[in-house]
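ok so for the tutorial part 2 we go from a plain amino acid sequence to predicted structure tokens. step 1 is just haveing the sequence, like this:
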Amino acid sequence: MIIVIGWIYVTLLVAANEPSVVAGIVSFLFYGALPCSLVLYFAGARVRRERRKYREQMAARQARDPAREDAPAGD
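step 2 — the prediction. this is what the tokens look like for a chain of 75 residues:
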């Protein structure tokens, strides 16, 4: 995450140094925002996969034992 923050900072400085506002925005989008969003998306793939697997396991467990709900005993 620190690498992404550093890269955004550097590209923001590069974009601020562009001769026109349009060039600065395009520079920031294509050199900063787009690559960082791709890196964060691919880095989060493992977490998303593990969450999906956990949800599927919980759904399968619920289907096997519908009487058991994660409610406290004695209610």
